[in-house]
C-alpha cells in the first residue's frame, strides 16, 4: 500500500504531544479499535527501541500480527516507527509522525503510514482486505488521540509486558 497521510490538529503544545507519542505503551490507548492485543517488546517503553507487537483487526486475518518500534526521534517534531507484519513478518511497515506547531498553541500532527509488501500475492491481499480498514482506522486513531490529549477521555488500555513482575522488588517475598 502506498503511503497515505492523516492530519489532525490537537489543542495542546507540541512538547506534550511529542512526549505522549514517544511512549510506545500509549499507542493502544488510541489505536485499540483496529490494532488489538498490544504487548510491549521490551521493558522500557519510551524512546528509541521501544515498541510493541499487536494484531490487526481485519476480516479473514490469518496473518494479522505485526510489530513496530521507534527507530528515530527528533524532539519535538518527528517520531519514526518501523516494523513488520503479515505472513512470516515479511511486509515492512513505516509510521512517521510529524508534529508542527501552529501559531495559536495547537499542534498539527501528520501521520504518514506506508507498507511495502514484497510479493505480488501480499500486494493483492493488502489491496483487497487491508488498505481501506487501515486508512479508516488511522483516521479514527488521530481523532481519538486528539480527544485523549485535549479532554482526557476515550482512553483505551495501556499496553503491558507479557509475564509477571520484572523488577526484583515487585512481588518478591524474601
What labels would you give this structure?
seven-stranded antiparallel beta sheet; 174 residues; Alpha-D-Glucose-1,6-Bisphosphate, Chain A, domain 4; 3 helices; alpha+beta
Short description:
This protein is α+β, with helices and mostly antiparallel strands and 174 residues long. Helices cover 26% and strands 33% of the residues. Strand 3 and strand 4 form a beta hairpin.
Q: Could you describe the 3D structure shown?
A:
The protein has 174 residues and is an alpha+beta fold. The chain has a single domain (4-151), classed as START domain (Alpha-D-Glucose-1,6-Bisphosphate, Chain A, domain 4, 2-Layer Sandwich). It is 26% helix and 33% strand. It is built from three helices and seven strands, in the order E-H-H-E-E-E-E-E-E-H. The protein has helices spanning 14-21, 27-31, 120-151, and strands spanning 4-10, 35-40, 51-56, 65-74, 78-85, 91-101, 107-116. 30% of the residues are buried.
